[in-house]
Structure formats: structure tokens, C-alpha cells
Amino acid sequence: MANADPLVRAARNGFLATILLLVAIGGYQFATSGTITTPVVATWVVAVLTFYASKYYYRRTDGDS
Questions:
Q1: In tens digits, what is the pLDDT along the chain, a chain of 65 residues?
Q2: Residue 32's CB: how many other CB atoms inside 10 A?
Q3: Distance between CA 24 and CA 28 in Å, rounded?
Q4: Is 29 in contact with 41 (CB distance < 8 Å)?
């Protein structure tokens, strides 16, 4: 099962760390300057697209094994 795979767990942990870092950076920028810079917003968009693409991929390939 893919959930037990150490590589998948490591990727999931890395993704969670990225999301937490984005929340911290975006919150800090919003609190200090009242806005969030374009690179942070672009990174959010990429992270969300990666999440949904991965979810779609693993749902599609889950029935193959």
C-alpha cells in the first residue's frame, strides 16, 4: 500500500512543512505590510495544484494493484 511507503510519507511531510511555511510567511507579510507578495501567492497556487494532481493520480492508480 502506498501509505506505508517511506518515500510517500517523506513527500507528505515535506508538503506539510511547505504549507506551514507558506502560512507563516503569508501571515507575517499580511500583518506587517497589509498585503502578500506575488511569489507567495504563486507558490500557494502551485502547492494547491500539486495537491489536487497528486490526489487525482493516486486515486486513479489505487485500483491498479
A1: 456 677 777 777 888 888 888 889 989 998 999 988 888 888 888 888 887 887 787 777 766 55
A2: 8
A3: 6
A4: no
Residue 1: its pLDDT value, please?
Answer: 47
Separation between Cα atoms, residue 43 and residue 22, nearest integer Å: 8
Q: Which residues contact 22 (CB under 8 A, 6 or more apart)?
A: 40, 43, 44, 47
- 26-to-1, 15, 51 alpha-carbon distances in Å: 35, 16, 19
Q: Is the pTM of this model over 0.70?
A: no
Identify the CA nearest to 15 among candidates 58, 44, 56, 36.
44
Q: What is the mean pLDDT of the chain?
A: 81
